[in-house]
Amino acid sequence: MSLKQWLALLAFYVSYLFFGASVFYHFEHKLETQKRAEAKQNQLSLNDLLLKSFKPMDVSLRDSILNEISSFCEKSVHNDTTEYLEKPYIWNFYHSFFFSFTVCSTVGYGNISPTNTFGRMFMILYALVGIPVNGILFAYLGEFFGSMFTGLYRLYHLYQKNLNKHYKPHQFGFLAQILLYFCPGIVLFIFIPACLFSYFENWEYSISVYYAFVTLTTIGFGDFVPTFGSLQEQQFGVFFRCYQVFIIFWFITGLGYLVMVMGFLAKGMRSKKIAKLETLVASNLRSRNERLWQSIQRDRIFVRSIFDELYLLNYKVF
Amino acid sequence: MSLKQWLALLAFYVSYLFFGASVFYHFEHKLETQKRAEAKQNQLSLNDLLLKSFKPMDVSLRDSILNEISSFCEKSVHNDTTEYLEKPYIWNFYHSFFFSFTVCSTVGYGNISPTNTFGRMFMILYALVGIPVNGILFAYLGEFFGSMFTGLYRLYHLYQKNLNKHYKPHQFGFLAQILLYFCPGIVLFIFIPACLFSYFENWEYSISVYYAFVTLTTIGFGDFVPTFGSLQEQQFGVFFRCYQVFIIFWFITGLGYLVMVMGFLAKGMRSKKIAKLETLVASNLRSRNERLWQSIQRDRIFVRSIFDELYLLNYKVF
């Protein structure tokens, strides 16, 4: 695939993600609005019931009971009509885009997922196109990263040779090669981004590392997912937007890197197969050359016999 | 990889899954027991508080209020000490095994996930070995399914030829081939198992189809996961055990089938590359043959000139 074709496919993929995001956003945002209204209704009616039930009681005791119930339920039973309005929507456009991406890359966190039959059926059709496109795109991205990586590695050797004429590159075994490929990537794509996750999400560092690992291996549990905190936007302002963009960027490059490593491993395994094939072809070629040489020899003998006869003829004539 | 090696790897993988299951079961079951005790404590103290708060009130009204709160919270606030004892554990051995498998296959439902730092770190180390082993195992399983599938396809053609001497196999295009590979698999691995899921899980059929699709593509949202119902074991008895085993079996064959289809698609794409290479080699060969032929022609002309000279010599002599 040429770079032009790849870029065309990338453009298609990005517009496909935006298309998916628009559809999911349109339908799920509406459903979420309905569900929020219902939840609000339930909350208010329960609050009403509770207030009616404890009649002659002082206000502070009543409030403390409501607090107890709220903390037990992990949602408010107070008469706070503003809370639901302030909490940001789960199905905003960014999360819809993020969701489309997690579908196509098969990460599938599942902290948000389609909530009705239409959404589920659309998701299936959407994934049927998105997963192969994503796969092809990342396969070539991985290849590109691989050639870049080996290029850098070669440059490093050249540089070392310039410094020291007697420099000889190390020959690494299979396991050492794996470590060589993995270590810089693990630092770059897991340990460094994990600092950012800890900062923006207020997670323990071990949880951030765990999240990065679970995402890049496409396991995607969804027990921890970034950018879903309800106060992040107010707290970090414009940096939060940068962080949201960074996550998409990290996701793409990280997956590309992982595909690259997988490609190296597969090549290492395949190269053994190819070596076997090569010896087979070489032995075939050798035997064919020998046969060719034999037939040439035969021809030479035949031609010489003709010449000999002709000369004999000449001699006879003389 | 020979069948023997594959079976050895399979044996290793299965024991690795059992090992993971034991570790997760051991730690998470303990944590779950603690959490259940805490939840029970919270429930009872809230119940106590509520009963104290509505003092002079008739029992049926009080119960109806408790019911309202319970349904709002989606967990009981009654003083029912038996409920928590009866509800089956989430982290039983089967679910631990299932969890290990979802980690190694990168499905990662995430409806259950490690709950403390030790569990998370262990999961990372566990996946580092499990994912590659799973990948290699399924790559070969997919290859095996592929050869079985093409074998069956060939047998069908032979059978058709025996019936009808003039039978010619259809030549399918790329898209038609994809459909040919996909259709039987979709019926066998999605639509038929979905009936079972609907029966045992009491899901709508569309949800069962959605679950099967989300699982086999390794998206794994985890919004619907089988065998987690709290009453299934009592309701279906021994059939539930069979169903649990069936799910593992379905999972393995379904993933193998999907890898097979992916392999066919990749081969189809690669075969285009190979076809290009072949035409290149063929044109090289042709040009080389032509060059060879030209040189042979030259040699023939040269030899003929010698012969002619010799004959001339003869004539001269005569």
UniProtKB/TrEMBL annotation, chains A, B:
One of its GO terms (molecular function) is outward rectifier potassium channel activity. Residues 88-145, 186-267 form the Potassium channel domain. SUPFAM superfamilies: Voltage-gated potassium channels. It is a multi-pass membrane protein. GO terms for cellular component: plasma membrane. Gene3D superfamilies: 1.10.287.70. The chain crosses the membrane at residues 7-27, 93-112, 124-152, 172-197, 209-231, 243-266. Belongs to the two pore domain potassium channel (TC 1.A.1.8) family. It is found in: Membrane. This is CSON014885 protein. Pfam families: Ion_trans_2. Keywords: Ion channel, Ion transport, Membrane, Transmembrane, Transmembrane helix, Transport. GO terms for biological process: stabilization of membrane potential.
